[in-house]
Specification:
By secondary structure, the protein is an alpha+beta fold. Helices cover 18% and strands 29% of the residues. Helix 7 (412-427) runs antiparallel to helix 8 (459-467).
Amino acid sequence: MFVQQRVYIFWNILQIIKCVHGNTCKPTNNLDIVFVVDGSGSVTADGFLATKQFMSRFVDLFEIGPLKTQIGVMVFSDNFYIPIDLNTFSSASDLKDAIFKITYPGGSTSTTKALTALGDVMLTSSRGKRSNVIPIAILITDGESDTSPVNAATRLKENGVVIYVAMVNMHDPTGDMQQVVSKPEYLMYVQNYNSLANLVGPLSVSTCDVAQGCLTTTCQNGGTCHQGQTTYRCECPSLFTGWYCDICRCGNMGSCSIDGDRWKCSCYPGYTDETCSTNIDECASSPCIHGTCFDRLNGYTCRCQPGYTGNHCETDIDECNPKPCVHGTCHDHVNAYSCKCNAGYIGIRCEIEINECESSPCQNGGTCIDKVNMFECVCSDEYYKPHCETNICQPIMTDVIFLLDSSVSQSPDQFTRQLNFVTQFIDHVIVGAENFQFAVVTFSFEAKVEIELAEFNNNVSLKEAVRNIPFRYSLKLYICI
């Protein structure tokens, strides 16, 4: 069984009352206690919350009321405010609720201003101070004041105020706090704000008449209280420690619970072993398929290898989405892709059209026009396509008439083929008054002259006119001779 023994540090509160009044502390000797709380920026919101928790537990040890113990609170930083007067509350529950509603101001540390206001403003009858009760100030601070508070503290002590200091961070660089307290032993140090809880144990004295006895609430969680003359000790169950056997050895990673006739630790997610002190390694099962696992509290994260994604790096990233190949087909690889280009294109992304004119395929002064996966030669009058390599036929003046069937026996596609034949024929001759002249007649139900001889005197305009001849079909067929 774990045994925790402490001397009542705050037994000194009773002793100073005896010292000042020259009489023995009796149940009728009530207390006016003021907490003077540092709310500067160095405290932090978490530290301020720990201070409020400390004060709340302190209140639990006293009978609160106008004929019993009164507790008030002052908060200071670069200024001060009084959220709770001495006579504001007559019950511990209301007082504790008010303590937790106190707001954290932040700012600099003006302890001098706070102690001055303690005497001038707080410890007055309008704030609930009783004339027949010794006032006690408990200063809780973590830093050096912007000015020395010694003179302000001296005036308070001369007026009968008993001053205690709870110094956080165990550091008093100027030594001022040793002069602020009423006695050297009234200066107490704790390592951090969470350690303020260690000072609640000595506050087991709720009133003078129980100062030397165990309170009914002293030892918690099945602990046994053993009384001494000025000390007590709690004999704690195996999983508990602390002043009142109130600290579970499962720490912050679990909670103590009863299993039959014994205590056990119920571990929070992510922890294991008898006292919940071992972090479970969620990476032990190698959950990251294509990546590196990083263990977290009750979980893990995966850092994926390039090319993979997903909670477990199980998904191959599709580098083909969105389509990177401009003119081609994309093939996905691990952290890469490749493009198979369509005919006429090259480049990593098939973004470059091949210039088929680069090899100068057009002969005899022809002009090359680049197209997708092909080219076209615009030839001079003397040559014709595809590469302008063939001389155009140049007979003496000739008139040519094309008779095109546009009857119902022809489909639109067949009629278009007739037109294409005519334009190809024109490509191989020179059109003009001194060379070839062409006429075009279509026939079906009736004959129609589409192009007259000598109507066009150059190849380009004649070909355009031929391509624009419409398809007119009829059920009757006439032969024009």
